[in-house]
Amino acid sequence: MGKPAYDVVIVGAGIVGAACADAFAERGLRVVVVDRDVVGSGATAAGMGHIVVMDDSDAQFALTNYSQRLWQQLMPELPDNVEYQQPGTIWVAADDEEMTEVFRKRDYYQRRGVGVDVLDYQQLQEAEPNLREGLVGGLLVTGDAVLYPPCAARFLITRAQQRGAKVKLGASVTQIAEQKVRLSDHQEISAEIVVNAAGANAPDLTPALGIKKRKGHLVITDRYPGFLRHQLVELGYLKSAHSVSVDSVAFNVQPRRTGQILIGSSRQYGAEHKEVDQSMLANMVRRAQEYMPALGMMSAVRVWTGFRAATPDKLPLIGPCPGYRSLWLATGHEGLGITTSLGTARILVDQVTGSRTAIAAEPYLPSRAATEYAHV
Amino acid sequence: MSSEFTITVNGTPVSVSPGATVAVALMIAGRPCRMSITGEPRGPLCGMGICFECRAVVNGIPHSRSCQLLCEPDMDVRTDE
Predict the structure, then answer these.
(1) pTM score, whole prediction
(2) How many domains are there within chain B?
(3) Where is A105: in which H helix or E strand?
(4) Is A246 touching B (CB cutoff 8 A)?
(5) Strand B5-9 vs strand B76-78: parallel, antiparallel, or unpaired?
(6) Rounded distance, CA A299 to CA A223, Å?
(7) Which domains does chain A have, with CATH numbers?
(8) Which residues fall within 8 angstroms of residue A76, CB to CB, at 6 or more apart?
(9) For the domain that residue B60 is a member of, what is the CATH number?
(10) Would you call A258 and B62 a contact, using CB atoms and an 8 Å cutoff?
(11) What is the ipTM of this complex?
(12) pLDDT band at B56 (very low <50, low <70, confident <90, very high)
């Protein structure tokens, strides 16, 4: 057998696959990216596109914080169509219990050097006049940003190509084997290593990953410039997003540069079809109106769904895949893949090239699944 | 016509006849309904409420379809927001 044609074949040209391609190519490796559709067509196109720091766990904080800094470094290079802006996130507290969470979150972030401001009721009203009366306060995370993910993925892929990477679109991978992938047209691509970055579809090619599809709905409105200034998330979100079994909705809105407003969010397991679920959509919009009543006056331009790649411990799978010699994983990012794509790529490339990772890689190693997931 | 009345378009009075739509008033005023996101002037295309090209801010309500609204006395129409 001759030497494989490539050093790395990446399955999936979503934001994670794109970031990995760019990072591998930067190190001078011969890269090819394969996607059955176009660049950034799956969860990358369906998601909101936030660059946020989250503190669900220390490991989640470490990865999101690391990734956000990478985005901030990349920002000057991002083309205009990526629509990167930094409105910050306000975590909205609806009652005293949630306000307690605001202070806990502030302490956690402050200790780790993340810029935050506690807002009392008055300051919250001034920051977001269209929130309903009677809320208690909030926590502004100043470094949080939003962008348009498909264009961000395209930028990363284009830069990878400038660094020598090849991209094969409209090519469906039907099988991942050692040092090669097989395509639906029976072609094979050989490489020293294979990276499965197929998001929620990763288990189709690599079974037993513990990844489940978690369906989400989003609405985008017509343009209402000035109506919304920050990304807003209800602190009750923690209660709903943390539940790994029950369908849930939470208030989460995001201002786009066009003046449009993205309205989310919903989470559903076991919903395999892409169709809009009217009752889920109704619950989600109702929840949003409970926080911002004037949203009810707006015109929605489009409603759609997408699938997050959810893991049982809500951390992605980054690293060598157990049971294989040449397969690596970069998937399982749930609702945070846009943020964590850049950190994921660096961690993966550092592992593959035997370099030191900037943050501890252990929490994201796929091998944890063998022990931790066994009982889930 | 004796029953003509006045609305304002971007603060400027415009005289219209009863039964005139806001889109007609904007044509009389020589104003586009709105500017697109890329800065192009937009006006009525289908004239029957389907295409959403003729949106304007009417009495403070954004994205009102001007071809579907009849003018009323003292109506405030803005196309410059």
Answers:
(1) 0.91
(2) 1
(3) helix A96-111
(4) no
(5) parallel
(6) 9
(7) 6-47+149-211+313-375 (3.50.50.60), 85-143+212-308 (3.30.9.10)
(8) none
(9) 3.10.20.440
(10) no
(11) 0.75
(12) very high
The pair of structure tokens assigned to A264 is 């989310």
Q: Do A223 and B61 count as a contact with CB atoms less than 8 A apart?
A: no
| Cα separation, A328 vs A221, whole angstroms | 39
Find out whether the peptide bond into A57 is cis, omega within 30 degrees of 0: no
- Tally of CB atoms within 10 A around B11: 9
Q: What is the pLDDT of residues A190-208, one digit of tens each?
A: 999 999 999 999 999 999 8
- Best of A83, A221, A222, A223 to mutate (most B CBs within 10 Å, chain B): A223
Q: From CA A349, how far away is CA A352, in angstroms rounded?
A: 5
Domain membership of residue B56 as a residue range: 5-78
Q: Is A223 on the interface with B (CB under 8 A)?
A: yes
**What is the predicted pLDDT for the residue at A17?**
98
DSSP output for A140-206: EETT-EE--HHHHHHHHHHHHHHTT-EEEES--EEEEETTEEEETTS-EEEEEEEEE--GGGHHHHS
Q: What is the pLDDT of residues B65-81, one digit of tens each?
A: 999 999 999 999 999 76
What is the token pair recorded at B4?
Answer: 């003509």
- Mean pLDDT computed over every residue of chain A: 95
pLDDT confidence bin for A355, thresholds 50/70/90: very high
